[in-house]
Amino acid sequence: MLRTSIPRAPSLPTSSGIFHLCLTFLLGQVGLLQGHPQCLDYGPPFQPLLHLEFCSDYESFGCCDQHKDHRLAARYRVIMDYLDLKGHELCGGYIKDILCQECSPYAAHLYDAENPQTPLRNLPGLCSDYCSAFHSNCHSAISLLTNDRRLRETREKDSAHFCHLLNLPDKDYCFPNVLRNDHLNRNLGVVAEDGRGCLQLCLTEVANGLRNPVSMVHAGDGTRRFFVAEQVGVVWVYLPDGSRLEQPFLDLKNIVLTTPWVGDERGFLGLAFHPRFRRNRRFYIYYSCLGKKKVEKIRISEMKVSRADPNKADPKSERVILEIEEPASNHNGGQLLFGVDGYLYIFTGDGGQAGDPFGKFGNAQNKSSLLGKVLRIDVNGAGSDGRRYRVPRDNPFVAEPGAHPAVYAYGIRNMWRCAVDRGDPITRWGRGRMFCGDVGQNRFEEVDLIVKGGNYGWRAKEGFECYDRKLCHNASLDDILPIYAYGHAVGKSVTGGYVYRGCESPNLNGLYIFGDFMSGRLMALQEDRKTKKWKKRDICLGSTESCAFPGLISTYSKFIISFAEDEAGELYFLATSYPSAYLPHGSIYKFVDPSRRAPPGKCKYKAVPVKTRSKRVRFRPLAKTVLDLLKEQSEKAARKLSNATSASRPVGTSSLKGPSRKPASPTSSRKTFRGPGTKKRARVWSPGSQGKRKMRRKSHSGRVRQSRTGRSLRRPFLSGSLAGGRARGESPHPMGAPAIELGL
Fold first, then answer.
1. Rounded to two decimals, what is the model's pTM?
2. What is the mean pLDDT of residues 460-469?
């Protein structure tokens, strides 16, 4: 926002002046005024789906789709109708350039729109040489581009005053310099990296107050609901508007075995919906329980949703499919998922303790044991041998004597969180691949791709290295090596993630994103399809510059419990600040790439309506957004400066009283040019349906009305059109006004 003003007599700073001074200084220090790609609706730029005919310089990457491009072209034609032939020749290019800055990937910086709580400029920031040439040749056209009184008054004056009003503090970002800056445009549109090569991503908070959220899944029924399971045995329903139903979907607290101990691995651990859930209402659960004589078990059961309420499980419908005795309280596995083949995959731990001490080779290498395995079963019918499931005929060890026929892969220590790759949205590359994080013993954590009949090495190997040297040197072990492993200097408990295949952040497509429970680190693996190797990339949060968008945060709870994807393929993770199953310190976060978003309208989905009987609990975010933190810091700096000013005031000098006069500036005018057919106001970009932020609006009484969230964001009046509507204002001339003689 411009902060130039008419010269006035020196005076002591008012509190308002101190605040704005500190805000300007602070934002400059933290990098917010150091422009980053951002559009006038406060969202990241995008690649338009269709060709831009008017602002074609930005058709590969910018802030305009074809609809907005057409609106700018229409406004251009209206303006040019007022110019004579000479005006067309001299000013057509300038006017087009200025209008098309709304399409620039740096539009927010050019219009001072990076902070939604400040008004926009009426015209973009122009570099001095370009501005002087424009004023010299086309000063009479200024009134056609803006209704701002101070800018229009400079029409007949020298260009210095006009260009001073349009000045930007950073000369690299004014137009047209911003187009020529190789540093700014070299990696435009790709995921931002810091100096260490760390990927700069941001988050939105979508849920909080959860007790160790271990799983978040969707039902695949088109309702866009997601179901969040707590370790204590309670499953909650979240609706597409971000609200949670007051009554739980499922409550098994009285059956599930867990304790308040920090780090207790027992509890409700897995949830999966049948691929044909819409027809059969069936879902599957995995939890710890006590059997006869208080023997600890893991239980995999089938349940059904109530016919009376689609948001409630039928508590009487549980049908136990499989129970496995657990010799120890740790290494319980817990993942359930359906593969693209329609079979249910079950991931069990090795039975616990340390080093898999059970039997000669351990449970994981013993194919007759169900522990330390990936199991594959058909839940669509009962087996002939009394089992409540069928064994697929092509399971790898069906014909091997002594091997359990349900075993699909073995040699696993404790796989914690696995996922099936949806495949590339266009080519379907990667579809059906199964990724898992396998928690290590003393030295290494690993990420594996599950293959039929694979031996993943435990307890012979840990990561790429030997653990049990005698077993490790056994030539008969044809181990499947990890696609990636890391040492305990990085983290001590891997949490498997997902390959991103969503729509909203196209740059992330194909990245396998995962984390570490103990260290709280977020990481990504990038595949080289030629070498079939994976490169590890760190993910960093916390850049004030990168995450300075409405609704985005750059902090999260340390202990990363799980990852999830919604029905549209957008990626989330579940974390807690204190890993006890009984304390409500868990939150859910959604990943957002601030460098590039999908084009407007591409990622809109219509949810299938679902009836709700339970009361809705509106989501109240706890995490402070980056913009909130910047505002707090600026207010704190303002108070310090105010106190320092008061302390330095001479004795007998009274403080200023009464309302302070805000210096006039070209940004203070609310009136802007209105093109034909412009009725709607601008809409503010929000990072997905869970990150909506309402703008405050003026009521009929003229007073500002707060949003329901308690925050007040100023809705800007834009110069020209925006995606989702244009600003209000009056046309600079009545229809039928004579063409302007430029008098050059």
1. 0.84
2. 94
* CB-CB neighbours of 567 under 10 Å: 18
Rounded Cα distance, 411 and 372, in Å: 6
Q: Span 282-286, mean pLDDT?
A: 98
User: Rounded to an integer, what distance in angstroms lies between the CA atom of residue 166 and that of residue 27?
Assistant: 19
Encode pLDDT of 107-143 as tens digits.
999 998 876 666 778 899 999 999 999 999 999 899 9
pLDDT at 545: 77
Q: In the beta sheet, which residues pair with residue 319?
A: 302
Spatial distance between the Cα atoms of 75 and 72, rounded to a whole number of angstroms:
5
The β-bridge partners of 230 are: 213
- The three-class DSSP label of residue 65 is coil
151: CB partners within 8 A, 6+ apart: 122, 123, 142, 162, 165, 166, 666
Q: What token pair was written down for 333?
A: 């596995």
Residues 6+ apart with CB under 8 A from 85: none
pLDDT-based confidence at residue 440 (cuts at 50, 70, 90): very high
Instruction: Give the per-residue pLDDT at 714.
Output: 34
User: Looking at residue 121, what is its pLDDT?
Assistant: 85
Measured CA to CA, the distance from residue 575 to residue 208 in angstroms comes to: 9
Q: Is 473 exposed, middle or buried (0-12, 13-18, 19+ CB in 10 A)?
A: exposed
- Beta-carbon contacts of 303 under 8 Å, excluding residues fewer than 6 positions away, are 250, 282, 283, 284, 285, 313, 314, 317, 318, 319
The secondary element (H helix, E strand) that includes residue 646 is: helix 626-648
Placement of tokens 């041998």 in the chain: 385
Using CB atoms within 10 A of its CB, is residue 683 exposed (0-12), middle (13-18) or buried (19+)?
middle
- pLDDT reported for residue 251: 98
Distance CA 119, CA 649 (A): 33
Pairing of strands 234-238, 250-251: antiparallel
Task: Please return the burial class of 281, using the count of CB atoms within 10 Å of its CB with bins 0-12, 13-18 and 19+.
Answer: buried
| Pair of tokens at residue 704 | 């500002």
DSSP H/E element including 522: strand 522-528
pLDDT reading at 194 higher than 80: yes
| Cβ 106 vs Cβ 184: under 8 Å | yes
Instruction: Name which of 742, 739, 738, 732 is nearest 148 in CA terms.
Output: 732
H or E element, residue 437: strand 434-438
The predicted model gives 480-487 an average pLDDT of 97
Q: Give the pLDDT confidence of 138-157 residue by residue, as tens digits.
A: 998 999 999 988 888 887 77
Helices (H) and strands (E) in the chain, counts: 13, 33
Q: Helix 85-99 vs helix 128-138: angle between axes, to the nearest 10 degrees? A: 150
